Amino acid sequence: MPVPSTQPAAERKLLRDTVQDKIRDAIMDGTLEPGERLNDDDLIAWLGVSRTPIREALAELARSGLIEMAPNRYTRVAAPAKDELLDAYRTLGVIYGGVVRLAVPRFTDAERKKIVKMLDDVVARVGKDEQSEVAHDGADIYSMWADACGNPSLEQLCKSTTDGLAFKLRVPELAELVPADVILPELAKLQEAVVAKDPIAAELAMEAVHLLPSRG
């Protein structure tokens, strides 16, 4: 029996993913602002593709939490809210505690050096009450850990959830709800654990950074 060609489906998936990445990047860098309505015709004109890959991409972005959709009413960029922040922040802590535990023993010397430098930068910015700036780069910061964890299932979970959760941190009350004096000591412990190649200490520190209850 002839084997059916799957090439058209692969091409459609590739196009959808390309469209999704472009819309995602525009949301994350602020080109598309929170609450902004997304019109199919405008997106078609901007992206130069048909309606189908755009709708597919928007549906995926809605599942990740970056887009809000109500049938026959609106499609718009999600608008982070104060009352969602702590739940999102703690959820990131639950996910990335496990990611860190797996990643720390696997870091190459170059990766470990890069993570330590990133944590130096985060500590410096949090020390200046620049949590909002850190949150703006949050998805990229988290991806540095996920890329090294060596667990494809966990990497996929991170890929599908981190953007939406990190986006929810972009509220003016972030510094109030995630105070610098609470998280700075835990960031220092996280950095020390990375240098010491101690996955358990790193996991506990990552959880504490995200305001999860202590285990002891």
Q: Care to describe what's here?
A:
With 216 residues, this protein is mostly helical. Helix content is 69%, strand content 4%. It has eleven helices and two strands, in the order αααββαααααααα. It has a two-stranded antiparallel ribbon. The longest helix has 22 residues, at 7-28. It starts with 6 loop residues before the first helix and ends in a 7-residue tail after the last helix. The mean pLDDT is 92.
Short description:
The protein has 216 residues and is mainly alpha-helical. Helix content is 69%, strand content 4%. A two-stranded antiparallel sheet has the order 1-2.
Largest β-sheet summary: 2 strands, antiparallel
The coarse overall form would be globular
Weakly predicted, low-confidence segments: none
**Helix/strand order:** HHHEEHHHHHHHH
- Measured as a percent range, the helix fraction is 55-70%
Give me the secondary-structure category. mainly alpha
Roughly what is the average pLDDT, rounded to an integer?
92
**Beta-strand content bin:** under 5%
Tally the beta strands. Answer: 2
Write the layout of secondary structure elements.
Blueprint: H1 7-28, H2 40-47, H3 51-64, E1 67-70, E2 74-77, H4 82-103, H5 109-127, H6 131-136, H7 138-146, H8 152-167, H9 174-177, H10 180-196, H11 199-209
Antiparallel strand pairs: 1-2
Helix pairs in contact: 1-3, 4-8, 4-11, 5-10, 7-8, 10-11
Question: What are the defining features of this structure?
Answer:
single chain, 216 residues, mainly alpha, two-stranded antiparallel ribbon, 11 helices, 69% helix, globular
